[in-house]
Amino acid sequence: MEAKLFSGQSKRKIKVFSLFLACSFLAWFLSNLSDSYESRANFVLNYRNLPDSLLLGNNPVNSIEAKIRTNGFRMFYFNLVKKRMNLDVSQVVYADGKYTLSEDAVKKQLEGQFSQSVSLLDLDRNRLEVDLYQVASKKIPVRPNIELKFESNHLLNGIFTIEPDSILVKGPAREIDTLMKVETEPIVLNDISSDFSVDAALVFPNALENSIFSKSRVKVSGKVARFSEKEFEVPIRAINFPEGYEVKLFPNKISLVCKASIANLKDISSEDFQIIADYKQLGGASNNSLLLRIVQSPEDIYGVRLQERTVNFVLERK
Question: What are the Cα distances from residue 285, in Å, to 191, 200, 253, 315?
Fold first, then answer.
């Protein structure tokens, strides 16, 4: 019984001692962290503000080592988490085939991103070589790779709208010289009966591995209209017949079918069309028939077709 009691008291003493020891160590550790230290830390570099004529290569310097003076808390943080620092490369200098930032330029930029409690003492290099290369740039049009299937009596009203309708590509001249357009990913829309708008990714050639594009996605939109058909009877005008002859056409009027939106059909009349029979263009199975041609039709229609393609004629001397 006494042995068990003694054993329990010993364990409690050990726990209390351990707690005091841990607290003492923590107090000592925190006290030391509040002191100022000089040490080295690594910082990850983010390159910003590239000039339009330059691109970042595949092997840039990703980090830089700096000697700094700060309190232990911040020093501990810098060694635990690599802080990201931005570098403005618009200040690069080109010499001896290389693009470089001087030590002073780098230090000035880094110092501007530290708090007042951090002093930058030294860098691990006296200049920073930036992996950049000259590029060309050009604007190329975007083409939609789209397949549309409309509901009955519906069709596309006008043309597609693409936003943006062109993009800027930057890269080595040898890569982008032959690039004339860029297409969207395949777009398939079925049973369309109303206006549509689709967000689509652009498909870039695999060979352009050193080029970059200003946009990777575009919006393809279109207006859809419900259409109908209406038949009109239009007089035929004969032209280029020999002088001294009178021409008679059989028939002298022809029917045509116009396809347009229901709203537009209401404002269309036969006077909006003009059909000619040109003697200079003899056609048909015999020499007394002429091909008909529509030379005038209203705007904003989707199609027009003649019910007959030829007309017979007779020439009579005056």
Answer: 43, 52, 20, 17
